[in-house]
Design goal:
Number of strands: 19
Number of helices: 7
CATH class: Alpha Beta
Order of helices and strands: HEHEHEEEEEHEHEHEEEHEEEEEEE
Oligomer: single chain
Helix content: 25-40%
Largest sheet: 7 strands, mixed
Number of domains: 1
Strand content: 25-35%
Distance between the termini: 41 Å
CATH architecture: 4-Layer Sandwich
Shape: globular
Length: about 325
Amino acid sequence: MKLAATLLFAMLAAATACKAEDFKVMFYNVENFFDTFDDSLTSDEAFTPFGTNHWTWERFVRKRNNIYKTIVAAGKGSLPDVVGLCEVENRRVLRQLAEQTPLSKGNYGIVHYDSPDRRGIDVALLYRRDSFTVAASRAHPAGSRTRDILHVKGFTPHNDTLHFFVNHWPSKGGGAASEAGRMSAAAKLKTLVDSLFSENINANICIMGDFNDYPDSRPISLLDAKRENTGAGHLYNMSVHLQDEHRGTIKFQGRWELIDLFFVSGNLRFNERGLHCSPSSVEIFQADFLLKTSVGEGVSLHRTYMGPRYAGGFSDHLPILIVFTRL
């Protein structure tokens, strides 16, 4: 354990000592990142000391530290410039993550809005202030009592304008009704993207999130994301090749499924100057410490809870990363 901690701090020191020219973006569904306090406006009682999960401050701190360790390790030598998160309860837990762990060395700012989700979970964006300057942000309603779509506009030190959209669409738990919720969220996102394209067909757009659906699903198809180059003014699905390889970010009923995805605009995918990305720049971060192996189930995710049992793990999702290279 001491050796692992030493290696982690060495990685963090290297990540903050120098800044690579590449621009690294990470997305991570951190699974129930709640504080220990009861919010009377939401259904968060399970994650309190006297709730069904017996969610204590000690367990919260372990969860917080597991998230920061994942972000540092996923950076592989340089901290991500931008980190999209979902299933965070409020700004308090984000400040704990960004300010009360060694991530504070990365000088991360926070963009967060409270959403109307019944459980009180939101999406958020962390950004390194030395590599991204936020110019504007807004939370767009994506449907009734679900998570908003977070839009953040900002600039890199090279004066690249970037638009980020962070998503957490309704889960499949509600059957046809939940698909209608994802269709509604997809239609809203498409409207927001089309509005940007109408202003600037070469807009730099990066969309990330837990879409709770597959790259070839009906809701995702509403985004009209392409595989091949059809020019500017379109979105491109950067995660399709992972599905072709039968890769996944969650394991459900014994099968790996790909529901955490990146999409980018044509200018970021195919431009010949400035920031550029390719499908090979997208990866699922599948470190051994995020996984566990058990008899019968094989390799699965090392979660915070396994049913009602506290396991002290990380999340029920693997994080994804995309790297933009300057040409």
